[in-house]
């Protein structure tokens, strides 16, 4: 368990809406290198400002962790856009036994509450948001991770097309490891690197697929994939949302990173919503590109560098 002292911040609350913090410790699982709120000692933090997640279970879990970590009486400021959980924040905090002051600004609800001495419903919220085995998938997962309790349609279509693989590869934006598990079913796969920006996804993927052939990286692929080169294959269902807004540039960046990391002749398997403009990004970077499947609103590509 970590020590008290610094105030905590969760995500990137707009500075114009949140109180300024001096040298805060970051706790968002979506920011590689951040501290884990789960590991923070009870009643140790002097203050917390949280851009609350939009998913209800995930938000209640993060608020419960934040309240547990705060010293009784220390202030929690939780804010969210009105249409992404903000409208429910005050009620959710009150249900934890908080006395809430709430304000509305620029389509956000901003709630401040001192940490109550007793947090009502703490254990239930922590249990509801905790990692668990999803029996239907045979995989560990957690609310908040992409498609956390079912296989995404695009991923399922890519799985249908995937041939036997060999050599060294990577799963870019691995989530809980749905695509990686299929790759590892090929005995010819010597090494597989799973990368995701979400610590919870990496933790779940490690629990699901840890072994002598796998390595796990909690990293932002917008930074660099320079640690990877000469790969035989890459699998990806690229993200197309960044903080809730559609972001085609993110998927295009994944494609550039894949081209950098593959050897000449290496293959990128990609599945994406068919309206996303990825063909144009792939064409100049790959020598061959085949549309393997178009179904249910998705396209699955095999692109050879
Ligand atoms: C569409 S999901 C696919 C997940 C998984 N491969 C599957 O098929 O279920 C995209 C994944 O990319 C991750 N991601 C988003 N932005 C990222 C970034 N900048 N760097 C690395 N991973 C990222 C997300 O956390 C998410 O797990």
Bound molecules: S-adenosylmethionine
**Unreliable sequence segments:** none
Strand portion: 25-35%
Strands, count: 17
Please report the first level of CATH classification, the CATH class of the largest domain.
Answer: Alpha Beta
Overall residue-averaged pLDDT value: 95
Q: Summarize the helix and strand pattern as letters.
A: EEEHEHEEHEEHEHEHEEEEHEHEE
Corresponding CATH architecture of the largest domain: 3-Layer(aba) Sandwich
Q: Helix share of residues?
A: 25-40%
Briefly note the structural class of the backbone: alpha/beta
Distance between the termini: 46 Å
Write the topology of this structure.
Layout: E1 8-10, E2 25-26, E3 45-51, H1 56-69, E4 70-81, H2 86-95, E5 101-105, E6 108-114, H3 122-129, E7 132-134, E8 139-141, H4 153-161, E9 167-172, H5 178-184, E10 189-196, H6 199-209, E11 214-218, E12 231-236, E13 241-242, E14 245-246, H7 248-261, E15 262-273, H8 279-282, E16 288-295, E17 298-304
Parallel strand pairs: 1-2, 1-3, 3-4, 9-10, 9-12, 10-11, 12-15
Antiparallel strand pairs: 4-6, 5-6, 7-8, 13-14, 15-17, 16-17
Helix pairs in contact: 1-3
Describe the structure.
It is a single chain. The protein is an alpha/beta fold. It has helices at residues 56-69, 86-95, 122-129, 153-161, 178-184, 199-209, 248-261, 279-282, and strands at 8-10, 25-26, 45-51, 70-81, 101-105, 108-114, 132-134, 139-141, 167-172, 189-196, 214-218, 231-236, 241-242, 245-246, 262-273, 288-295, 298-304. It is elongated and about 60 Å long. The structure holds S-adenosylmethionine. Residues 146-147, 152, 155, 173-175, 178-179, 195-198, 201, 220-222, 237, 239, 250 line the site of S-adenosylmethionine.
């Amino acid at each position: 368990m970590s020590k008290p002292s610094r105030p905590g911040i969760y995500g990137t609350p707009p500075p114009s809406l949140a109180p300024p913090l001096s040298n805060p410790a970051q706790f968002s699982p979506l920011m590689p290198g951040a501290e884990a709120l789960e590991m923070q000692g009870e009643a140790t933090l002097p203050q917390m400002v949280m851009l609350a997640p939009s998913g209800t279970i995930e938000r209640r879990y993060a608020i419960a962790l934040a309240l547990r970590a705060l010293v009784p009486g220390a202030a929690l400021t939780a804010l969210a856009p009105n249409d992404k959980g903000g409208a429910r924040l005050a009620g959710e905090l009150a249900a934890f036994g908080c006395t809430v002051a709430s304000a509305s600004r620029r389509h956000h609800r901003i709630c401040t509450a001192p940490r109550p001495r007793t947090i009502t419903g703490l254990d239930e919220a922590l249990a509801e948001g905790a990692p668990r085995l999803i029996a239907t998938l045979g995989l560990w997962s957690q609310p908040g991770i992409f498609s956390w309790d079912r296989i995404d349609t695009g991923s399922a279509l890519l799985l249908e097309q995937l041939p036997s693989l060999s050599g060294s590869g990577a799963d870019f934006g691995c989530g809980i490891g749905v695509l990686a598990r299929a790759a590892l079913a090929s005995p010819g796969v010597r090494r597989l690197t799973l990368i995701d920006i979400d610590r919870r996804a990496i933790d779940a993927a490690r629990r699901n697929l840890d072994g002598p052939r796998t390595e796990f990286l909690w990293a932002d692929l917008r930074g660099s994939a320079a640690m990877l080169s000469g790969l035989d294959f890459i699998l990806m269902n690229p993200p197309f949302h960044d903080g809730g807004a559609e972001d085609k540039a993110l998927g295009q960046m994944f494609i550039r990173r894949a081209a950098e990391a593959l050897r000449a002749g290496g293959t990128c398997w990609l599945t994406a919503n068919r309206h996303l403009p990825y063909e144009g990004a792939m064409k100049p970077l790959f020598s061959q590109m085949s549309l393997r499947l178009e179904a249910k609103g998705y396209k699955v590509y095999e692109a050879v560098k």
